[in-house]
């Protein structure tokens, strides 16, 4: 997480270095008024793009909610569009380029997938204790002496959990299971 914050803080630094290099003619000479006009023009075009994509994303969220589905991808897209708008509002060419990557749909897709994998899923798993992704302990508490010590139906040794009778260390045997017919049990 700190690396991501450090990267976000380095982007404006790269922006300043690029603007100074272009204004002084180190890379190639650009008149200062042209450079300022380019920065303002890219910000305006980017904000119009974010506005249009935001409306399309809001429409998709409403459509998904109308049919009873969760709009997970659309919500991540909305967050990325907010970040793109912030990048476009920051003056500079590098921040405008990063904002453009987040605003255009076909470049936003890999960023959305990476965000879901490395940001959203670990956060949700930490908050739900693994229930959201299915990484939960079954057969007792994780540190219980009588139950398995790891996730899933395995015991402390890595094999199937052993035990007899009932309790946290038992396993289900479908051959020994019986059906209960509640209609026949009403007879006295």
How many strand units? 0
Radius of gyration: 28 Å
Task: Sketch the topology as an H/E string, one letter per element.
Answer: HHHHH
Q: Structural class, from secondary structure content?
A: mainly alpha
Low-confidence stretches: 154-166
Q: Biggest sheet, open or closed, and with what strands and sense?
A: none
How widely separated are the two ends?
Answer: 67 Å
Number of helices, counting only DSSP H or I runs of 4 residues or more: 5
Overall pLDDT confidence: 81
What is the 3D shape? elongated
Range of helix content:
55-70%
Strand content: under 5%
Protein model, in words:
Residues 155-168 have a biased composition (Gly residues). This is Membrane protein FxsA. One of its GO terms (cellular component) is membrane. This protein is mainly α and 188 residues long. The protein has a domain at 31-127. The protein has helices at residues 2-24, 32-66, 72-89, 93-103, 105-128. The chain is elongated and about 85 Å long.
């Amino acid at each position: 997480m700190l690396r991501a914050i450090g990267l976000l803080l380095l982007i404006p630094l790269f922006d300043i270095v690029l603007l100074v290099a272009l204004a002084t003619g180190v890379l190639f000479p650009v008149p200062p008024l042209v450079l300022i006009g380019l920065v303002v023009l890219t910000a305006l075009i980017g904000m119009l793009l974010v506005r249009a994509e935001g409306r399309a994303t809001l429409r998709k969220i409403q459509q998904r909610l109308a049919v009873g589905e969760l709009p997970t991808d659309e919500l991540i897209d909305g967050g990325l569009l907010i970040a793109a708008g912030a990048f476009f509002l920051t003056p500079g060419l590098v921040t405008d380029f990063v904002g453009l990557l987040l605003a255009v749909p076909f470049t936003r897709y890999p960023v959305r997938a990476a965000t879901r994998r490395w940001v959203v899923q670990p956060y949700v798993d930490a908050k739900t204790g693994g229930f959201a992704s299915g990484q939960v302990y079954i057969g007792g508490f994780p540190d219980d002496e009588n139950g398995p010590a790891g996730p899933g139906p395995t015991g402390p040794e890595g094999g199937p959990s052993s035990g007899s009778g009932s309790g946290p260390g038992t396993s289900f045997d479908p051959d020994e299971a019986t059906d209960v017919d509640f209609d026949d049990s009403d007879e006295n």
